[in-house]
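Lecture notes, structural biology module. Today: joint structure prediction for complexes of two components.
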Amino acid sequence: MSTQTKTLTKQEALFEYLIRLADDRLILGHRLSEWCGHGPILEEDIALANISLDYIGHAASLYEYAVEIEGEDRHRDDLVYFRNDVEYKNLKLVELPKGDFGYTIARQFLFSAFSYFLYERLANIEDEQFSGMAKKHLKEVKYHLRHSREWVFRLGDGTEESHQRIQEAFNDLWTYTEELFYMDEVDELLLADGLSVDTRIFKDDWKQLVSDVLNEATLDVPDFDQYMAEGGRKGLHTEHLGHLLAEMQHLRRSYPNAKWE
Amino acid sequence: MHKTLFKYNEKDIWKLLSEITDPEIPVLTIVELGIARSVEKKDDKFIIKITPTYSGCPAMAAIENEIDKKLHLNGIQKYEVKKDFSETWTTDWIPEEAKKKLKEYGISPPGKTESDEDFLNNLKGEQKEVACPYCGSTNTKLQSKFGSTACKAQYYCLDCEEPFEHFKCI
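The predicted structure, tokenised, for the full assembly:
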């Protein structure tokens, strides 16, 4: 491996930025799709499948724009099916197994709250196509936040068991929350042109929202100053991503040019 | 006989598009739903722009296929269907007449969208009023924010005791 750092062009940075956003949504969408047919009640089965579709839809439009920026005539599906885990740039938070319903809801809430603040700003990004997509995604993200927030109340302030399970879920997931705000040279390079969002700006707002909801749900807010995991943005993942990709990609890789007839 | 290509104008294309119904809500056309955004003739090619109602709407691919089929059957060869995100789709684009059709079909139509400026504070707010499409009662209960498709929510009428779907207002 070369030790020289290649200077990043703006085009490469924007491609990378879009890929990171898209990978988060694809992987979380895939995780949520695992609930299809297994939801605790019919309404939630449908809700999680719907949210999963939203994420995959968001990812599809972001990948489509990414390959357009790249200009190498790749198809968005090539990015999905023919990249290995080290080439995926999603957050570790989204690749973790779905766990029980409480665990899924806790993750949905943490991610949706973050996405809400992020998309509020992406909607005003200095690129018409990008901001147009973001405005659309934002409407759906608000729905996701409403949905998961209400379930945090129901489970946190529900039975002894539901309280305990979702509390444990938040405790487990906490170490993956700092990575939501991860920024590096990709973000910095785009920031000057108004093409990325400075996540530092809304970190306190996110903490406030999350803390308020957990408090209201009679849950303890875990310590923000604990060891925090990262690496996803550089392609360093937990073991779980490889298993997920194997399932998601194996058909397309076995029959690379197969078409529905 | 088919008209030859050069005789078609934008208006003709709009007419063809207005014959295509939404696969999930067959009482409305893709023009009434505001999915078909614009038709433009560039040189001898028609550029048709469409926008999805929801990002993950699985009906989008079906709609694109329907447009292909419709244009193909009418002998139009030079066209391109493009996705357009420049304006965000909203239920406010659905005309009153189409909302009536929804109601008759048994789907409670969307109301007018309200400002979402104070979203975080509104999160704590009251549920909005939704009328039952069968008996008109507003004594209804939200059962699930997500219905059979992304664009609908599941409600229950406490008066006539019928479950029904509400087209979400976005």
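Point to remember: The two ends of chain B are 43 Å apart (CA to CA).
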